[in-house]
Specification:
The protein is α+β, with helices and mostly antiparallel strands and 186 residues long. The chain is built from eight helices and seven strands; from the N terminus they run ααααβαααβαβββββ.
Length: 186
């Protein structure tokens, strides 16, 4: 009886561990860091060495609690290099308390209230004849298109970002890493 119980418990733990390892192994690495599908968007972003500016901006804009919420969210996450395309003066001004609302709008223009994996986005692009409108939480509409195998997003100002790492699963959605900061209509 004890041996059967121990065997059942060991088997259960092994299968659970294998399931967690399998879920973890299917997630792409971001900036050399492992991303856990069991962690939320903020926890994984904090793990990413290429999203330090994004994490600081999300905290400054007061969006941490929102992006730790249930979701689902799709976040198009600009890298530090993408933020580096913005002048230090402009980025510094955006990070000031008096510009918190503007910063929040810019950041929420990178968030969709859905869990959209890249294959679903590609399907919507194909269904819409090559360009799919993507309404964001921030009130912006991005245009998703394909460039070969890559998904691109164009903001309302014509700024183009490419998804460089797709389908980073989160407990409350998905992150797609992008190479440019997108902006609301100016």
């Amino acid at each position: 009886m004890i041996r059967t119980t121990l065997l059942a418990a060991t088997t259960s733990l092994t299968l659970t561990g294998m399931a967690l390892a399998e879920a973890h192994a299917t997630n792409p690495m971001v900036g050399g860091a492992e991303m856990s599908a069991e962690m939320d968007i903020i926890a994984n972003a904090m793990n990413s060495p290429i999203h330090t500016t994004l994490v600081a901006a999300v905290a400054q804009a007061g969006l941490v609690e929102t992006l730790q919420g249930e979701g689902p969210f799709t976040v198009f996450a600009p890298t530090d290099e993408a933020f580096g395309m913005i002048s230090d003066e402009t980025l510094g001004a955006l990070m000031m308390d008096e510009n918190k609302e503007q910063l929040a709008q810019i950041l929420t223009c990178h968030v969709v209230a859905a869990d959209a994996m890249s294959n679903a986005i590609a399907g919507m692009i194909a269904d819409d004849g090559g360009a799919h409108p993507v309404p964001t939480v921030g009130g912006c509409t991005l245009t998703a298109e394909m460039d070969g195998d890559d998904i691109t997003l164009t903001d309302e100002n014509g700024r183009l970002a490419t998804v460089t790492i797709a389908d980073v699963k989160q407990s409350n959605g998905v992150i797609h890493v992008i190479d440019r900061v997108l902006l609301p209509k100016q």
